[in-house]
Amino acid sequence: MTHSETLFEQAQKYIPGGVNSPVRAFRGVGGTPIFFKHAEGAYLYDEDGKRYIDYIGSWGPMILGHSDKRIKDALHAQVDLGVGYGAPTSIETDMARKVCELVPSIDLVRMVNSGTEATMSAIRLARGFTGRDKIVKFEGCYHGHADSLLVKAGSGALTLGVPNSPGVPACLAELTLTLDFNDIEGVRKIFKEMGDEIAAIIVEPVAGNMNCIPPVPGFLEGLREVCDEYGSVLIFDEVMSGFRVSLGGAQGLYGVTPDLTALGKVIGGGLPVGAFGGKREIMEHIAPLGPVYQAGTLSGNPLAMSAGLATLNAISEPGFHDRLTEKTVALREGLKAAADAAGIPMAVQGAGAMFGFFFTEEASITSFDQVMACDVERFMKFFQGMLKEGIYLAPSAFEAGFTSAALSDQDIADTIAAASKVFATL
Ligand code: PMP
């Protein structure tokens, strides 16, 4: 038995499923999850002493790689000053200023502790601001586990939402309308029917929770037009894409400006942080300025702000995202060439430092239905093969991959060589 297997057995005695977040349990790929002991740069080291090249990066935050000295120094300095006061600190203003500079659509920003809190609060704010209850989301987009957002469509173009999970009241889920990602005509149609009842559209501008699907040209632009026409709030959930697909996020990359933005992951440098912000006239409805309530005991925690601000400063260095995107494209192209050489049909796509690969005959994947038609069995075999080779990919066919600045050209070459080896066994 490996150390990881023993530790997993012990964990299951006290923690539901042995994990504190479901995807970590490896249910989507089989086998037992790997328990990690430490991480440095592009590498994770497990409890059995094996090294892995990491393409998860703690599910996004570790854009600099692990144990970056700048983050560690910032954290050590703050630990000596105190780990939290529940009162204002200057670093919160430094952080807010930095976020507003990097994301010009954000005039005011409120810190929270997770991506879930960020989207949940943005939705409440949009509803409070517009006085409307319905929201639109897209099938396959994940916005955290708040009640209104744990809803997906049935099979039609539009269904009144049915809850995705027991425990979500049907009367709340009904207010969430679920449409097809990348289908702007479906959006126009529903707005024609009930646009004046819709508070907001929430969208992952680069979908990263059904593998990785960039927006087709015109989709985000169309959402902007529809929201302008009907007075609805456009919310970009950039928890994943923010500071990752470009310094200014997906809105910077594609040039479409939302009213509100939800942030998470990179903004916390690995500590629990989220944020939501946007247009001043909307954000001024948040307490204590306005009537829409939102609060947090640990929000703006100085340790979390230190790690986050150090990360945002580091990624603001000129050329950071160009270099990281170049590496990511080299990885994508290398994987595709290796798959072609092995005769394995595969589509590879991405945006900035996010990527996805699909076992499919299709040249590209733009919709949820296409994702669902991919060969998941083959993904599972590929995942397990890569794990043996020391390459740590997301343990699910429905998650995006993340690169970090710590990856060397050699790491990428090693990853492609490992993939060639594994492709030959599929
Ligand atoms: N939105 C998106 C786009 C996400 O990818 C996630 C998490 N993967 C969330 C929201 C929720 O964030 P958290 O897990 O920090 O609550």
SSE order and pairing:
Blueprint lengths: L2 H12 L21 E5 L2 E4 L4 E4 L14 H13 L8 H13 L5 E5 L2 H16 L3 E5 L12 E2 L6 E2 L1 E2 L6 H4 L2 E4 L4 H11 L3 E6 L15 H12 L2 E6 L10 H6 L5 E4 L10 E5 L1 H4 L18 H14 L4 H23 L4 E5 L2 E5 L9 H5 L3 H13 L2 E2 L8 E2 L6 H15 L3
What is the CATH topology descriptor of the largest domain?
Answer: Aspartate Aminotransferase, domain 2
- Which band does the percent of strand residues land in? 15-25%
What class would the helix/strand composition place it in?
alpha/beta
Question: What's the main sheet like?
Answer: 8 strands, mixed
* Tally of helical segments: 14
Any idea what the CATH architecture of the largest domain is?
3-Layer(aba) Sandwich
- Proportion of residues in helical segments: 25-40%
Low-confidence stretches: 153-159
Find the count of extended strands (DSSP E, 2+ residues): 17
Find the CATH superfamily of the largest domain. Type I PLP-dependent aspartate aminotransferase-like (Major domain)
Average pLDDT works out at: 95
Textual characterization of the structure:
Belongs to the class-III pyridoxal-phosphate-dependent aminotransferase family. HemL subfamily. Its EC number is 5.4.3.8. This is Glutamate-1-semialdehyde 2,1-aminomutase. The modification N6-(pyridoxal phosphate)lysine is found at residue 265. GO terms for molecular function: glutamate-1-semialdehyde 2,1-aminomutase activity. The longest helix is centred in the C-terminal third of the chain and has 23 residues, at 320-342. The chain has 2 domains: 3-67 and 318-423, Aspartate Aminotransferase, domain 1, CATH 3.90.1150.10; 69-315, Type I PLP-dependent aspartate aminotransferase-like (Major domain) (Aspartate Aminotransferase, domain 2, 3-Layer(aba) Sandwich), CATH 3.40.640. The chain has helices at 3-14, 69-81, 90-102, 115-130, 170-173, 184-194, 219-230, 249-254, 280-283, 302-315, 320-342, 368-372, 376-388, 409-423, and strands spanning 36-40, 43-46, 51-54, 108-112, 134-138, 151-152, 159-160, 162-163, 176-179, 198-203, 233-238, 260-263, 274-278, 347-351, 354-358, 391-392, 401-402. The model is unreliable at 153-159 (pLDDT under 50). It is globular, with a radius of gyration of 21 Å. The chain starts with a helix and ends with a helix. Helix 2 runs antiparallel to helix 10, helix 3 packs parallel to helix 10 and helix 11 packs parallel to helix 14. Strands 4-13-12-11-10-5-9-7 form an 8-stranded mixed beta sheet, with helices on both faces. A 4-stranded mixed beta sheet has the order 1-2-3-16. The protein is of the alpha/beta class and 426 residues long. Strand 2 (43-46) and strand 3 (51-54) form a beta hairpin. The protein contains 14 helices and 17 strands. The structure holds 4'-deoxy-4'-aminopyridoxal-5'-phosphate (PMP). 4'-deoxy-4'-aminopyridoxal-5'-phosphate (PMP) is lined by residues 59, 114-116, 119, 142-144, 204, 208-209, 237, 239-240, 264, 274.
